[in-house]
Design a protein that fits this description.
The complex is a heterodimer of chains A (261) and B (434).
Chain A lengths: L8 E10 L2 E11 L4 E6 L5 H9 L6 E6 L2 E3 L4 H7 L1 E4 L11 H5 L6 E2 L2 E2 L1 H14 L17 H14 L4 E5 L7 H16 L3 E5 L3 H7 L2 E6 L2 E7 L5 H10 L17
Parallel strand pairs in A: 3-10, 3-11, 6-9, 9-10
Antiparallel strand pairs in A: 1-2, 1-4, 4-5, 7-8, 11-12
Chain B lengths: L19 H10 L2 H4 L3 H13 L6 H17 L6 H26 L7 H16 L7 H27 L2 H20 L4 E3 L3 H8 L4 H28 L7 H23 L13 H19 L1 H11 L1 H6 L4 H27 L1 E3 L4 H15 L10 H20 L4 H26 L4
Antiparallel strand pairs in B: 1-2
Helix pairs in contact in B: 4-17, 5-12, 5-15, 5-16, 5-17, 6-7, 6-8, 6-15, 6-16, 7-8, 7-15, 9-15, 10-11, 12-13, 13-15, 16-17, 16-18, 17-18
The chains are: A alpha/beta (261), B mainly alpha (434).
């Protein structure tokens, strides 16, 4: 595990422009292991760009990304995967026509003598799913097209766990999910952090964020305006920060911890 | 890292409220051979899937039986050994081209050039093997196939590097390679083939005994591999078909093999006795076996399916889309080259009469009739073979009945429309509300 005083992932002064648009300006962020860090912000605040910079889809124009205390360059998704960074995308990067095992191993199939080693992959996938208590799927050989939204999200997260990822990034993991499915996915995110993974979730949903996050980072127009433990924030402050970049309130009122939203 | 001070067994996540409909869909999505405990259960599960629109190769097999009954009732010559073997030989070119097209279709692309790429393959082989050039048969065929593969790689590179639609690039290929073929063939317009080995590909036969031996060896190897794989899965406690079902599957393949060899070994000569399995049938089954293997059991095949299913997901999984697409289109053209060699061998010559436009349309039609999706992500080499046989059966049967080419085209078109309709309807049934 990372050194005690170094967070697993540290961003310093990360900037990114697309033509005339300044998407990120000098962003600093620490993502420690064993905790859920929530990244919040209004539409266009740069959340997606930031996680894509970490995931190797975009390359930052300037700034330093350190991984376990060591500066790294993440140029492709493969680089990110090699470090142990897995991203679960909002639009669910799963192939509908492939089954659960095939999706979990996509791009990193186990091969023996030129042939796909289906037995080994299936065993590993099954173990991972049951260790995460993802038990609602009927068969791990069913195509992903036949799964519900929550099940698909669970498969996508389990895929990250299967690869022993140290950091799992989730973009809107509960968007478009029902109440029960949301609870299932949030429980899974919590379990991920309890097992020692670092989790970074992007979400619009304040209920979800305050339920599952340990730390909250707020982006506003490409600037990181605040990063705090969840206990030092309430919904009102978070919303102020997201919409205006500042908040006149300094700390949550002691009477109603967690706020009411 | 994985087992970092794992706490007590995690509490089970509350079950989702699965609606009955969703549960049914999930049930149907699992291949019956993986969940059935017995042969009876397997049949019930299969029937449920067919009812729900997940039909697999069933429509094409049913269509084939229907077409056979129809033609046999109109002309009793249709189901004779001689005509059926002839039909298999006629189907070879369609089946080979369709197997090539399957690679393009699985990606969600299309290759319109393969008809004339096959023509180029035939021309190159004929030019090299003719007495004035005098190359040995194997070198002529090898160079012809290499040329076709290179054409596929060129077109694939243009499509992936510049980012043009495969439809347009291969449409240009259709015109260009037709021009090249006409230019090489020149005013004479025809190159005869006198090499006996090359001509025997389409018109030579194995001896009856050799036919039986080859069939038994092939079925034996297939049975052994299938049995070992399934019992290994059962031992490891993975989802696997029950032993009865494995035996049934091997038995069905054996029965099919016996039927084909028995059919081919029946004397079908009119003046002198002719019998034996045509070499070309072996060629088609050989290509089928290798391509089925590539598409189903290798990383390359898995990547092709993933690109056809969700190219963005494949890209994010770190798959090199341009490379896999180029390889697939190269294999498409390579397979077309094999079809071209068989085509030239069957006519014992190659001439400007080769209609690559019709051939490619038949190839796409055959792949789709066989069950390959036009929308990408679903396709097997077997689809190409079965679809090719359907097209050849229509051609052959209507020929026996004395119909003109015009009627053949119209009937083939209707069969194609029916196949695409089934595909589209099945697709709608598969993904409810998404």
């Amino acid at each position: 595990m990372a050194a005690v005083d170094e967070p697993l992932l540290r961003l310093r002064g990360v900037s990114k422009t697309f033509g005339p648009v300044q998407a990120l300006t000098g962003v600093d962020l620490d993502v420690p292991a064993g905790q859920v860090t929530a990244l919040v912000g209004d539409n266009g605040a740069g959340k997606s760009v930031l996680i894509k910079c970490i995931a190797g889809i975009h390359t930052p124009d300037s700034g330093v990304i350190s991984w376990a205390g060591r500066p790294v360059h993440i140029r492709t998704p493969r680089d990110a995967a090699a470090l142990g960074i897995e991203t679960v995308y909002q639009d669910l990067a799963l192939c509908d026509n492939l089954d659960i095992v095939q999706n979990m191993f996509l791009g990193r199939e186990r091969v023996r003598r030129l042939l796909l080693d289906e037995e080994q992959m299936e065993t590993a996938a099954r173990e991972t799913l049951s260790s995460l208590a993802v038990t609602t799927v009927r068969s791990i050989r069913q195509p992903v097209a036949s799964l519900s939204g929550g099940q698909r999200q669970s498969v996508a997260i389990a895929k990250a766990v299967l690869w022993n990822s140290k950091l799992v990034i989730m973009d809107e993991p509960t968007a478009a999910l029902g109440v029960a499915q949301t609870a299932m996915v949030l429980a899974l995110v919590r379990r991920l952090a309890d097992r020692g993974h670092a989790a970074l979730i992007v979400s619009h949903n304040m209920n979800d964020v305050f339920e599952v996050a340990d730390r909250i980072a707020v982006l506003y127009l490409g600037h990181m305006v605040d990063v705090r433990p969840v206990a030092e924030l309430d919904r009102q402050i978070a919303v102020d920060l997201m919409t205006t970049g500042t908040s006149t309130r300094v700390s949550p009122s002691r009477e109603r911890p967690g706020g009411e939203g | 890292m994985a087992k970092v001070d794992e706490p007590a067994p995690p509490p089970a996540i509350p079950d989702e409220d699965l609606t009955e409909e969703a549960a049914l869909q999930a049930e149907l999505a699992v291949s019956p051979e993986l969940v059935a405990g017995s042969v009876g259960e397997y049949l019930r599960a299969s029937l449920a899937r067919v009812k729900a629109g997940q039909t697999g190769v069933l429509p094409v097999v049913a269509g084939l039986i229907l077409v056979s009954i129809l033609f046999q009732s109109l002309n009793s010559h249709f189901l004779t050994a001689g005509n059926l073997v002839n039909l298999l030989v006629q189907a070879a070119v369609f089946s080979l081209l369709a197997m090539g097209e399957v690679y393009a279709l699985v990606l969600g692309e299309i290759d319109l050039s393969i008809g004339f790429v096959a023509g180029i393959g035939g021309v190159v082989m004929a030019e090299l093997a003719k007495p004035s050039t005098g190359w040995p048969w194997w070198a002529s065929i090898a160079v012809a196939l290499a040329v076709c593969a290179a054409i596929g790689m060129l077109q694939g590179s243009i499509i992936t590097r510049i980012g043009l639609p495969s439809f347009v690039v291969t449409l240009a290929g259709l015109l260009f390679w037709q021009g090249v073929m006409l230019r090489i063939l020149g005013a004479g317009g025809s190159v005869p083939i006198n090499n006996t080995v090359i001509n025997d590909i389409a018109s030579g036969n194995l001896t009856p005994m050799a036919g039986w031996l080859v069939m038994l060896v092939v079925v034996g190897l297939f049975g052994l591999a299938t049995w070992r794989r399934d019992s290994k899965r059962r031992r490891a406690g993975l989802v696997a078909p029950p032993p009865n079902l494995t035996l049934l599957k091997i038995g069905a393949v054996l029965a099919g093999g016996v039927a084909i060899v028995a059919l081919c070994n029946t004397d079908r000569g009119v003046i002198v006795p002719i019998s034996g399995v045509p070499w070309v049938v072996l060629v088609v089954f050989g290509v089928l076996a290798v391509w089925a293997f590539v598409l189903g059991r290798t990383r390359l095949g898995r990547y092709m399916h993933s690109i056809g299913g969700n190219a963005e997901a494949a890209r994010r999984a770190g798959i090199n889309l341009a490379w896999i697409r180029t390889v697939a289109l190269t294999l498409t053209s390579f397979t077309a080259g094999i079809a071209g060699v068989v085509y030239a061998s069957r006519l014992r010559s190659i001439s400007t009469a080769l209609d690559g436009g019709t051939l490619v349309l038949y190839a796409v039609a055959a792949a789709v009739i066989g069950g390959t999706s036009l929308f990408g992500g679903r396709g097997k080499a077997l689809h190409g073979v079965l679809g090719g046989i359907v097209i050849a059966a229509i051609d052959n049967g209507m020929g026996l009945l004395g119909f003109s080419a015009a009627s053949k085209f119209m009937v083939t078109a209707i069969v194609l429309l029916a196949a695409v309709t089934i595909d589209a309807l099945a697709r709608r049934g598969r993904t409810p509300g998404t």
